[in-house]
Amino acid sequence: MNKVLGQSFLESITYEQSQDVEITTQLLQSLPISQLVGKGLAINHLALQNVRTGLAGKLYVELGPDAAFTHELIRGEVRNGDLVLVRPSSGKKDGISCEGVVTKSSDKMITIAIDEAQENNALSLYNATTLCLLKTTNTITYKRMQSTLRKLCEIEGTPNNEVMQYLLNEAKFIPRKDKLDTKFFDANLNSSQKDAIDFSLQNKISIIHGPPGTGKTHTLVELIRQLCDQGHRVLVCGPSNISVDTILERLAKVLPGQNLLRIGHPARLLEKNLAHSLEVLSKSGDAGAIVRDISKEIDDTIAKVKKLKSYKDRKASWNEVKILRKELRAREQKVVTDLILSARVIVSTLHGSSARELVNCYSHTDHLFDTLIIDEVSQSLEPQCWIPLISHYKSNMQKLILAGDNKQLPPTIKTENNDAVKRALTTTLFDRLVKVYGDSFRNLLDTQYRMNTMIMAFSSQEMYGGKLKAADAVANWTLADLPAADINENTEAPLLWYDTQAGDCPERDEDFTDAGALSSKLNENEAYLALHHVFNLINSNISQESIGIIAPYNAQVSLLKKLVHAQYPLVEISTVDGFQGREKDVIILSLVRSNDNFEVGFLADERRLNVAMTRPKRQLCVIGNMETLERSKVKFLERWVRWSEDNSEIRYPDLSEVL
Ligand SMILES: Nc1ncnc2c1ncn2[C@@H]1O[C@H](COP(=O)(O)OP(=O)(O)OP(=O)(O)O)[C@@H](O)[C@H]1O
Asked: Which GO terms describe its biological process (predicted)?
């Protein structure tokens, strides 16, 4: 089975890589910057603000909005960890440029880490009038998956590891559901959280299914404490830096610092987590002191060599440098290995789990980890999940705990034209295991601590079999309960629709001259309605920071930012993907699609819509054409409209009053 699975994923990943490279190259070459921005693949009108030295042979290039054009960055799909190219906005595409990785981004500044070798290129960007940043393909991540899958294929016979046997469907899984007398550290856990923890403690493999706001991270933190208490060494992984940094931040509050180690380039970590970074720790404190001393000795010797006159003396000193360098490497490796071996919990991305520093430790020990936890498994490609399993095959991992929600956004892939590849890659490990073993090891967290019951209800009914409950503290809260908020029709309703089916909010393509399929969509009058509702909320004493606006199209997000931020710069506006894992007191959702053909595009993706409608705590305000949705032939949308007609306050806006 390992050969069949490995080979089939290898083919799919190789195909996906070719598509990714082809699509990105084609888009970058053929489309003007304005359209790349519309697709979220580029940021335009940047000014180079600073080039500074960072850690580990990296330079940080800081880019802000070019004040001659704009005051805020439209970041689109550009996220931390993305590989990007910075070049002048106009002029030759193959002119001066530098390539790096996004390490920080906000509406005011984007920072990329580049290799020192590109310093001159970076500095010459100061001369360009205005700059743009383009998202390119990161081939390193593909290579790592491919080499993992090859190793999976190479395992002869049935792997001797029981966890792997379950994953490969080569052992029968009989779940144990004994009542344990676990002494929970956190007294507030609810019964579904306690059950999920007990299940994971007594089974080799488990899934913690955490719908929005149900305390998945909360549960994982308690579980990790329990595992540490039982003497386990735990490897915690996730698909992105932010996914694992969120857990690390919470773990750091309850586990003593020296037990936690974060693998990964410090430039990509949350600042709060730097105290746990392997790289930072290995260069600081007592451990780093010896290394620093040797480095200084090397520098001093080199300085001396330059002054020596005789060849013989110089030769002798260079030999000394060589010996010192060898010692430095050995010391560095020892410091790193000691830190790893003394940590109880190691946190890294799925890709980072194959880091050389970790794998090198197997020359000192046969067993590094007992348990592997993969968070956000539903956003991870299955080949990514195999990276820690294969890299730490020697550890003979005793337990695998997966956490995620297969009803929220799946991993994003580029392949469009090959259904087999699409199916193979968007079926996550979570989905595949549920298909093989049914619900036998899936533990649903059933109480959410975010949303008013009315906001939760449709999502619960459609996506979670009606099993979700709202915790008492949030079940009835509305905007009107916020301190200082006025009590009126704009703050009391948990569910509100501005139904635009009267026809005065037509959608349009981002650019009339654009080739259809590549075009993003926008809806100007919906944007004005969103602004109108923001105005109503602010006038009811709701703070700008409490308000979020979501639109499924980048072009609409850009338009909304221009319009709303001119008056209310602190209102957060993003696509659905940008809001995954986040929450706001009120979310205004601009659906954009409004046409006589009842075409709904992205809206047909119920997982994307599920994420959008479960971000608000106290009010969901939808702006959209109910008729377009109802007649789209997409059952989920049809049911949502019918349900909303019965359960929301519906307004039929008079555009003449708004515009
Ligand atoms: N048992 C509990 N009692 C009280 N509050 C809780 C409990 N469990 C979780 N919470 C609260 O619920 C909120 C959501 O928890 P957490 O961030 O762990 O959820 P999540 O499922 O990881 O979130 P997301 O939906 O963003 O993935 C947090 O404010 C957390 O403190």
From this structure: DNA damage tolerance
C-alpha span between 122 and 489 (Å, rounded)? 54
Residue 514 pLDDT > 90, yes or no? no
Q: DSSP letters of 470-532? A: E-HHHHT--GGGSTT---SHHHH-SEEEEE-TTTTS--EES-TTS-GGG--EE-HHHHHHHHH
- Residue 20 CA to residue 137 CA, distance in Å, equals 7
With a 6 Å cutoff on the Cβ, whether 189 touches ligand 1 is yes
Q: In ligand 1, which atom is closest to the CA atom of 190?
A: 1
Distance 492 CA to ligand 1 centre (A): 24
pLDDT at 571 over 60: yes
Cβ of 403 less than 6 Å from ligand 1: no
Q: Is the minimum distance from the CB of 213 to ligand 1 under 6 angstroms?
A: yes
Mean pLDDT for the chain?
89
58: pLDDT confidence band, cut at 50, 70 and 90? low
CA–CA separation, 97 vs 114, rounded Å?
A: 11
Is residue 260 predicted with pLDDT exceeding 80?
yes
**Terminal CA-CA length for the chain:** 62
CB of 78 closer than 8 Å to CB of 84: yes
Q: Which atom of ligand 1 is found nearest the CA of 582?
A: 26
Unique residue bearing structure tokens 């970074």: 277
Ligand 1 centroid from CA 216, angstroms:
6
Atom 10 in ligand 1: residue holding the nearest Cα: 215
Q: Is the CB of 561 under 6 A from ligand 1?
A: no
Q: What's the confidence (pLDDT) of residue 320?
A: 86
Distance 583 CA to ligand 1 centre (A): 11
pLDDT tens figures, 591-608:
999 998 899 988 889 999
214 ligand 1 Cβ < 6 A? yes
219 lines ligand 1 (CB under 6 A): no
- Amino acid letter, residue 495: L
Residues 6+ apart with CB under 8 A from 187: none
> How far is residue 156's CA from residue 51's CA, in Å, rounded to a whole number?
51
Nearest Cα residue to 616 out of 647, 561, 558, 572? 572
Average pLDDT, integer, range 348-352: 96
How far apart (Å, rounded) are the C-alpha atoms in residues 481 and 375?
34
Instruction: Say how many Å lie between the CA of residue 189 and the centre of ligand 1.
Output: 10
Taking the C-alpha atoms of residue 516 and residue 191, their distance in angstroms, rounded to an integer, is: 51
Beta strands 442-444 and 205-209 are: parallel
SS3 (DSSP) at 461: helix
Q: What are the start-end ranges of the H helices in 540-634?
A: 554-565, 576-579, 606-613, 626-630
Please determine, for residue 447, whether its predicted confidence score (pLDDT) is greater than 90: yes
| pLDDT: which is higher, 139 or 475 | 475
Separation of CA 104 and ligand 1 centre (Å): 25
Q: Indicate whether residue 449 lines ligand 1 (CB < 6 A).
A: yes
| Ligand 1 centroid to residue 611 C-alpha, Å | 16
Closest CA relative to residue 76, chosen from 42, 25, 111:
42
Which burial class, exposed, middle or buried, applies to 7 when counting CB atoms under 10 A from its CB (0-12, 13-18, 19+)? middle
Q: Is 210 in the pocket of ligand 1 (CB under 6 A)?
A: yes
For ligand 1, atom 4, which residue shows the shortest CA distance? 188
